[in-house]
Specification:
The protein contains 2 helices and no strands. The protein is mainly alpha-helical and 68 residues long. The protein is extended. 0% of the residues are buried.
Amino acid sequence: LAEKYFGDWERGPEPSRQTTFEPEQKGERRVTVEFDASPMLLIGYHIPAAGHPDLPSLDALSDILSSG
């Protein structure tokens, strides 16, 4: 079925790779958004980069703090 409808499509060009830059955060940042929706509170903290040996411990701490 897929071949029937899409079999003659030509492959398009590869999309360009998008990179982002997060500026250094040197202090607290708060954002308040008010609109008709379910209330939500999000809290985030800086953690080490991927592959750091402390990440498993931080993951366990996150589970304990968020799930009990």
